[in-house]
Specification:
Number of strands: 15
CATH topology of the largest domain: TIM Barrel
Strand order of the largest sheet: 3-4-5-6-7-8-9-10-11-12-13-14-15
Order of helices and strands: EHEHHEEEHHEHEHHHEHEHEHHEEEEEH
Shape: globular
CATH superfamily of the largest domain: Aldolase class I
Structural class: alpha/beta
Number of helices: 14
Number of domains: 3
Oligomer: single chain
CATH architecture of the largest domain: Alpha-Beta Barrel
């Protein structure tokens, strides 16, 4: 099937002329991109349609709140396209384009200056990446991200994966992609992509595809067929998604999403607190509320779905939300940029309106060393 990408709101017939004009101010700052397949999932008669909210611009994006790099990815960038935040994991930004631009995107800074360029790294720059990886034997896990790696041509993706796979200490290659939701035909109609995964997903080094389905309606029969192709090619699937106001911020929607993902062989991995990104205030859900929504959603689900973690991708690490009492929001460092923070538990003073770590007062904290000393 030929998928048509759309970057001009005037091509969306069901948008009124008045709405298109009002949204021009938004797309001048934050570009729009979608495709005809994904737009067909929207109910045009419903202004609160969740799929619409994911991909169609909103004037609420003009609210001055947040920053373009809230997780301070710039400070962890070692060479072009390569971030090294945690000792064992390297993140590679290999693409600057996605199948659509999510309106809540935490890397929208990439889309402000791409000019339509897909590839981030030339072949020469990739050699520098491979050299860096060879020089860091502590790295066992490489995550391909962007943009969306599956927007690259399959030969370019092969060049990247082949180069990484030649490094003996790399045991996991992850591909972070929303293409199974945005354009499942990218997978269904490319036998070479499936052969690539089959070739490099081996017993001692697996290819993981980390998907991003935000709402159950994205899991169409076509999307599920694409997931099935990936599974049969030997990929291991996991899903991650932020909890987003107006899209999936209720237990029933999250429960259905988790149940359908589990059934499709793509179990949930993380639910994220929406990062404080410029133009995304209207998507944010208070952390305490997000915790209660997710805990309610887990009722009636198997342990496979329940293993999902609620986390903040904070500049200092992944901070997991693990409990709520009358007095405290309890969090711990699931991953930490500073090794001294690994496993640290923090008791935060309750703040029902708090959206990010800085909105809370730390009342008590316990390092892993302190806790071990008491055992």
């Amino acid at each position: 099937m030929s998928i048509k990408y759309i970057t001009d709101l005037s091509k969306i017939e069901w948008l009124s002329e008045d709405e298109r004009k009002r949204l021009e101010r938004v797309v001048e700052i934050f570009p729009f991109r979608a495709n005809d397949y994904y737009l067909s999932l929207i109910d045009p008669s419903d202004p609160n349609d969740p799929i619409r909210k994911i991909v169609i611009p909103s004037e609420e994006e003009l609210v001055d709140w947040g920053s373009l790099d809230p997780s301070d990815e710039k400070s962890y960038t070692k060479i072009k396209g390569l971030e090294h935040k945690y000792p064992d994991t390297v993140l590679l930004l290999v693409s600057q384009v996605c199948g659509g631009i999510c309106r809540y995107c935490f890397r929208k800074r990439l889309f402000l200056k791409t000019g339509g360029q897909v590839e981030v790294l030339t072949s020469e720059e990739l050699q520098q990446v491979f050299s860096y990886l060879r020089e860091h034997p502590e790295v066992t896990d490489v995550l391909l991200s962007g943009g969306d790696p599956l927007m690259l041509s399959t030969p370019k993706l092969r060049e990247i994966i082949e180069g990484i796979a030649e490094i003996p200490h790399i045991k996991v290659i992850r591909i972070g992609s929303k293409m199974p939701a945005y354009n499942p035909f990218r997978i269904l109609e490319d036998d070479e992509l499936l052969k690539l995964i089959e070739e490099f997903s081996k017993p001692n080094r697996r290819i993981y595809v980390i998907t991003q389905f935000n709402h159950p309606r994205e899991l169409t029969e076509t999307a599920i067929s694409a997931l099935d192709k990936l599974l049969k090619a030997g990929a291991i699937l996991s899903n991650q998604s932020p909890i987003l106001r107006g899209i999936n911020d209720n237990p029933e929607t999250l429960r259905e999403l988790m149940l359908r993902l589990e059934g499709a062989g793509d179990p949930p991995y993380y639910f994220f607190i929406n990062r404080p990104v410029l133009g995304t205030r209207h998507f944010s859900v208070p952390i305490e509320r997000a915790y209660l929504i997710l805990e309610e959603a887990k009722k009636g689900l198997s342990g496979l779905a329940r293993r999902v973690k609620l986390a903040m991708s904070h500049k200092t690490g992944k901070i997991e939300v693990i409990g709520l009492t009358n007095e405290y929001l309890i969090v711990r460092y699931h991953r930490a940029a500073n090794p001294n923070d690994h496993g640290k538990v923090m008791f935060l003073e309750r703040n029902p309106q708090g959206l990010w770590l800085e909105d809370f007062k730390v009342v008590k904290e316990y390092s892993l060393g302190e806790l071990e000393a008491k055992v």
